[in-house]
Amino acid sequence: MWSQRKDFKSQYQRLLKLLPVAVFGGIVGGLLLLNTSESSFRSIIPYLILVATLLLAAQVKIKNWVVARIGHAHSEHRNPMLMLSLVLLAAVYGGYFGAGLGVILMAVLGYVTDDSMTRLNFLKQALAFAINLAAAIYFAFSGKVDWLIAFVMIFGSLSGGLIGGKLAGKIKPELLRWIVVSAGLIASVIFFLKK
């Protein structure tokens, strides 16, 4: 996120609108996770990642359909509730599971805004951070956190965000999308094989 701070100004208004929804959704997702059995959770992991990946792969076609249906290229201005609702669903997912959250957020933001993947990457990272932080704070007070694993995940998330943010500005948006789609498909296959 820090490496893309130049994009902050262009996404500031969107971030202000979406941040409360993201935080609320992260907490709701955390609540749902703590009330789901481990076997149920393990059985839905591959499907959650696969759906997120397919959404991103079909982003351009779905966005074109949404724009044609709404009749305006900047659909977020015509239907702000669509954007808020989709971000809320993504946030609940993120608080519940988290893997593939970036893919889902990128797909959602791509559907409801008329902006490039590169510029939306900052917004995606900021929202993912808020969702994960809200869920983490909820989990911290639940008494059910393995703190060693939590710190490893925090380090990985921060490192990946910093490196990913730097790379995102140097890669063509279409290539970036297909790299993320490929990673999502690989993750889906791995989780299906573990099932």
Automatic annotation (TrEMBL):
It is found in: Cell membrane. This is Probable membrane transporter protein. Its main location: membrane. Belongs to the 4-toluene sulfonate uptake permease (TSUP) (TC 2.A.102) family. InterPro entries: TM_pro_TauE-like, TSUP. Pfam families: TauE. GO terms for cellular component: plasma membrane. Keywords: Cell membrane, Membrane, Transmembrane, Transmembrane helix, Transport. It is a multi-pass membrane protein. It comes from the Bacteria. The chain crosses the membrane at residues 15-34, 40-60, 81-110, 122-141, 148-169, 175-193.
